[in-house]
């Protein structure tokens, strides 16, 4: 009987050791798959030429130009405007700081815009015509499923067409 109990004890200890080792591997795998940023670690670059000049962009996750999940932040100076446009995929927007003014439709009309302060969130379905303006330096976070793209309602508003 003692040999039987000793064998059971050894088996229990062995199982517990393997369970702990597996748990540690799962924890390492989970933390190894995490990417974190503090505000000072974000890499800001000029926004792509699809947007009016003057804004900065930091890509936090994924590649917005590929068919994959992405998260990016757009920092806009006071008075920055994005003419009426639409996106081919759903756009998710969170205002991190500042004040974002957004209007709906085909014509930029400052009087028809709604104001969204820090903490506000919105999403727009593909094809929804809208325009935006920053009041004060404004930081927004965009996330969704790529590829991200922008199509201006009036082709002459497209900054890509204004470049040499």
What structural class do you assign from the helix and strand content? alpha+beta
Q: Can you identify the CATH class of the largest domain?
A: Mainly Beta
Distance between the termini: 89 Å
CATH topology of the largest domain: Jelly Rolls
Main pleated-sheet profile:
9 strands, antiparallel
User: How many beta-strand segments?
Assistant: 9
The domain count comes to 2
Corresponding CATH architecture of the largest domain: Sandwich
Query: In percent terms, what proportion of residues is strand?
Result: 35-45%
Can you tell me the overall shape?
A: globular
- State the helix count: 1
Task: Point out poorly predicted stretches.
Answer: 1-28
Q: What's the helix-strand series?
A: HEEEEEEEEE
* Helical content band: 10-25%
Mean pLDDT: 86
How big is the Rg? 25 Å
Question: In a nutshell, what does this entry contain?
Answer:
The chain has one helix spanning 2-32, and strands spanning 45-46, 56-61, 69-76, 81-86, 91-104, 114-117, 121-124, 130-145, 151-152. With 164 residues, it is of the alpha+beta class.
């Amino acid at each position: 009987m003692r040999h039987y109990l000793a064998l059971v004890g050894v088996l229990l200890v062995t199982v517990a050791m393997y369970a702990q080792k597996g748990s540690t591997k799962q924890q390492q795998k989970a933390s190894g798959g995490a990417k974190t940023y503090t505000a000072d670690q974000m890499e800001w670059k000029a926004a792509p030429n699809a947007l009016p000049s003057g804004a900065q962009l930091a890509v936090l996750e994924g590649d917005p130009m590929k068919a994959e999940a992405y998260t990016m932040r757009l920092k806009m100076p006071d008075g920055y405007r994005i003419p009426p446009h639409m996106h081919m995929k759903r756009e998710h927007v969170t205002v991190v700081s500042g004040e974002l003014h957004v209007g709906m439709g085909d014509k930029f009309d400052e009087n028809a815009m709604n104001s969204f302060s820090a903490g506000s969130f919105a999403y727009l379905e593909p094809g929804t015509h809208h325009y935006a303006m920053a009041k004060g330096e404004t930081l927004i976070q965009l996330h969704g499923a790529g590829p991200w793209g922008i199509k201006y309602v009036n082709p002459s508003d497209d900054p890509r067409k204004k470049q040499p």
